[in-house]
Amino acid sequence: MIEILTGSSLNTIQDFGRRHAMAMGVAQGGAMDRLALSHGNLLLDNPVDAAGIEIVFFPFRIRFHAETSFAVTGAACPVTLDTLKLPRDWAITAQPGQTLTIRAPEQGARCYLTVRGGLDVPSVLGARSTDLKGGFGGLAGRALQKGDRLACMPAGTLRLPAAGYGLSHPCPLPSADGTYIRVLPAAEHDVFTPESLQTFQTASWTLTPSANRMGYRLEGRDRLELTRSLSLFSHGILPGTVQVPPAGQPIIQMMDANTCGGYPKIATVIEPDLRLLSQTAIGASVHFQEITRDEAVQAIRQEAANLRVLAAEISRLRTQLVF
């Protein structure tokens, strides 16, 4: 059992979301940085999609009411268990009465708290993720508040060294000179002017404060323009879709995006890079690079292969640890 000591309208319970429910008009949802959530769950020998807490408002504090193995992954944040400083992407066992404090990121934008077994909240439409728009999933369909208490799913005891253990190669985060995102052409790509297509890839776009789980609005010096006017019916969109409204500034659909929209689509962010975007801080620069479908498939396969290798490495490490 863990107790939330700080509340906000932004910290929520997330797993891998409801991709299968998008045909019913339900947002996919789920962790904005799936890789970080996966890393935390692998450290705890959980299923990679076990529900954890996505933290975007800091400082975040919880108190443990039972012995609990946990991990903190994702953004590079100062983390302390009582007075013990924890390294990045680290798993350790807390004792009853101990307090975990996660402070604002030094790099990245969001981090994940996972617990052994995953969080025990009801599964709604096949997932435990919080859908704030729909008001369901997670804990009563809302953000976590001070005083909330969360139970862990039943799981066998996980033996960890007293000081814990972590990843030698934490999740990649955006670099200091900006976030570099690979994209594929989308449905209306060829209706944009050649100058706009060049601008889209060569310009430095700034992530504005109008950024949330539904979408990220970017701002650049030049407008993206069409060769002719379009009148589009609302049509299906996915997380990663880059739309361009009449103002000519791109909007990237994120995990809680609506399942349909009518703005022209210039590109689609590939899945491995959508998580990098989610770790981009407000005011940082974003750069786009168009790639081929084969290159996108290879990037997705490589990320999956890397995760399998990491799972094997963690399993071997756990057997070698001295307790």
From TrEMBL:
User: Gene3D superfamilies per the record?
Assistant: Cyclophilin-like
Keyword Nucleotide-binding on entry: yes
InterPro entries associated with the record: CT_A_B, Cyclophilin-like_dom_sf, PxpC
GO molecular function annotations of the record: ATP binding; hydrolase activity
Source organism: Gluconobacter morbifer G707
The answer on whether this UniProt entry bears the keyword Protein biosynthesis reads no
Record's protein name: Putative carboxylase
Q: What is the lineage of its organism?
A: Bacteria, Pseudomonadati, Pseudomonadota, Alphaproteobacteria, Acetobacterales
Keywords for the protein's UniProt record, in alphabetical order: ATP-binding, Hydrolase, Nucleotide-binding
**Domain spans labelled Carboxyltransferase:** 23-305
